Each structure stands twice: as structure tokens, then as C-alpha cells.
Amino acid sequence: MFVRPPLLKEGDTVAALSLSSGFVTEVLHRYEAGRRQARAELGWNIIPAPNALRGPEYLYRNPQARADDLHWALENPDIHGLLSMIGGDDSVRLLPLLNLETIRRHPKVFLGFSDSTVTLMQFLRAGVMAYHGPALLTDLAEFGGMHPFAVQGIRQATMSAAAFHFQQAPEWTQAHQEWQQPDLQEVKRPFERSDGWTWLQGDVPAQGHLMGGCLEVLDMLNGTPGWPEPVLWQGALLCLETSEDVPPPAQVGYWLRNFAAQGLLQSAAGLVLARPRGYTPDMVAELYGWVKKVLWEAGREAMPVLANVDFGHISPQLTLPLGAVGRLDRGAGVFEVVGG
Fold first, then answer.
1. What is the CATH number of domain 13-162?
2. Which residue among 7, 60, 176, 200 is the one 20 to 30 A from 339 at the CA level?
3. Which residue intervals define the domain LD-carboxypeptidase C-terminal in the entry (predicted)?
């Protein structure tokens, strides 16, 4: 159903794109750390797209320059992959400027999360797999070096075979550390032991292509011409996460009710929820209650639901190949990709 882009390999040149915020120019030491660490751990040669380092004010006022960078990276034969610099909040402004035919004719790995959800969905609309995972300024520029779990996740999704098991992170963090202090770049953040995945419901294994992203961004995209057509949602494993804005559990429930009103929950094969950033234990319990409530309302009380998975706005995070066929099996404790 979706074209799998050519796998990346060590020595490849990957373009870093500022498709949303141009914040990178305020933390150039972190940008260089990300490039250096990516070369050491992944073997990638990361270069900036022509407009990627022109600053937040210029990029805010010139969405065409951002779209031009995407098209340049796709059409340039010397560029093998595309990497989001960082998220933001206005990639939706690029929708009238993006050429799906260019994406379709030049399938390449595009890796990003958060506001990059807009662009990830456009790759899927063009029939090309896209990769929900670390950005250059986040996990690739992790304080004190890339986390081995993030490295493994990127490698297995973008550089290895089409089938693999997702692993549970042994540790995780949401600890804040100031990006704009260069002297902290080599100081590792504190991590805590992971409590693992949580299976909320559903005992029958389910299989479908991976779809989804950041719920707040999907909400901005909903109702625009960039919203994926209904057929793209049918039979999907929905992979959904929330941002550092920490939306209340009830708000997540309302978004899921919107999905139900569109028939997306009724046609989905299963649901995968990320570890929610900034949630207290009580908020997590309330969130899970809302999820089960809305699925009951939609007649999907038997849908398999896996929660507390390591992707999205926490570290380290997995890389999800959106468009690839995934499988959930509660009995075997498995979340896996079975093919492209």
C-alpha cells in the first residue's frame, strides 16, 4: 500500500530541515553536537538544507522557503534521507505549498515527530512510508551522547530489514536541562527505571499499517486538505502521543471521540499509546479510563490497546515506520513490524 524508501546506510548524506521552527540558530552548539553524534552512532553525514539555518524570524515569514527545502532534499540525488531539525507549531501553513507528486516520485526516509506530524501525514498521502522518531535537536543531540535505545530504534527502522520487534526502553527521562547553555551539553540527564508497557484491553492479535503522530498536531490538521483520506485510516494500528503541552486526559478523550465520529476508531485494527509526558499517576489512570470509555462508546471494547510505549515527547524514543505493517499480540507481549 505504501512505498518503502531505500534504506539509509553508513556514509549517506542526510539533509536537516527546519520545516517548522527556526530555533536551531539559537542553539548552534547543540546542532553541531547532533551532527557529530549522528556521524559517530549512525554514520550519517548531516548537512543543513539551504534555508534551514536562516533563523526563526525568516522561516516564520517565509513558509515557501521551508517547502522549497523539502522539495530540494527530495529532488537532490546527493541527498539520501531527510531529518527534522525540531518541531514547532505551524507546519500546517506549508500544506498549500507541498507537492505530493514530488514526494511520490522521490521516496526518501523522512524522520521527525511533534509538528513534523503534518509532513509525515503528507508522505503517507503520497503513498510513501514516513518515520515518526527523533529530531536532530532532541535524541540525536542528547546530552552526553545518543542513548543506545534511540540509536537501535533509528537503525532498525531506517537502516535494517523490514521486519523487527519493538523493544521496551530500560529507562526513560523527561528531565529538563537548559539547551542554551553550551557547558551543559556533555552533562547527561538523570534517567529513571522504566515501568514498561501497559496492555489496556484486547486479547486477540491485530495487524495493520502504522498511522498517527502527535494528537495536538493531528487536531490542527483535522479538517484541512492535508488530513489523510478515510481509506488511509482503514485497518490501521493507530499510534498516538501527546506533547509537552500536557493536554488533560479529558481533552485526549474528546479528540478520540472526534476519531470515532469520523469512523476512524471503528475501522482501526488497534491502538498504541505513547508514554504521556508530564502526567502524574492519577492523570495516567484518568487517561486510560477515557480511552476505554471512548472505545466502548465506539463499540470497540475488544480492540487491542497497548499503552506507555516509548515514542513521542519523551527520551529515549522509538522510531515508528508509519505505513509499515505492524502487529500487536498481547498473549506474546509483542509489538512488531512484520513488513513494509
1. 3.40.50.10740
2. 200
3. 207-326
SS3 27: coil
Condensed to tens digits (0 to 9), the pLDDT of residues 22-62 reads: 999 999 999 999 999 999 999 999 999 999 999 999 999 99
Residue with cell 501497559: 198
SS3 222: coil
* DSSP reduced 3-state for 58: helix
CB neighbours of residue 324 within 10 Å: 23
Q: Was domain 192-339 assigned CATH 3.90.1800.10?
A: no
Beta bridge partners of 320: 132
What is the pTM assigned to this prediction?
Answer: 0.97
CB 268 within 8 A of CB 238: yes
189-209 pLDDT, tens digit per residue, is: 999 999 999 999 999 999 999
